[in-house]
Amino acid sequence: MNEQVAKLLNEQINKELYSAYLYLDIANYYDELDLDGYANYYMIQAQEERDHALLFMKYMQINNLKVTLEAIGKPDKVFSSVLDPLEVAAEHERYVTALINNIYHEAHQARDYRTMKFLDWFVDEQMEEEENADSMISRYKLFGQDPKGLYLLDQEYAARVYAAPSLVL
Ligand code: FEO
Question: Angle at the Cα of 73 (from 56 to 154), degrees rounded to 5?
Fold first, then answer.
């Protein structure tokens, strides 16, 4: 496999684990605010990110590529309102989309159709992740500033349950 593609795949394991770490930090912030539904939503989001990391790792293993696990960065965002983490999450997902697009671009340059096919799932996933993140912001802006509205949103996010990724390698 192309060296640059392999390097980016390996880096993506770390980026996805950082995403999990960021979402754990967000879940913890909401827990401190006693917004247990929002906390639940981001705990599940963290599990999904760990799943993403494991998918990249498995893909590399299947293709006999050397996996190197690096240190995970400290989540260093400071939150001072219910809205802050939602905006951080949306911005972060757009960053992850750019990373996936970059690997896709390199794979395309290298005519690595196998990796492009693998990444297709992530391209779709990022569309969904960005849509969900944006929707959480707009729903908060519409309903969340009223205490009853925020309570109902929190109840709704409390109902989210973990589902394993549809991509199986
Ligand atoms: Fe793994 Fe939220 O992208």
Answer: 85
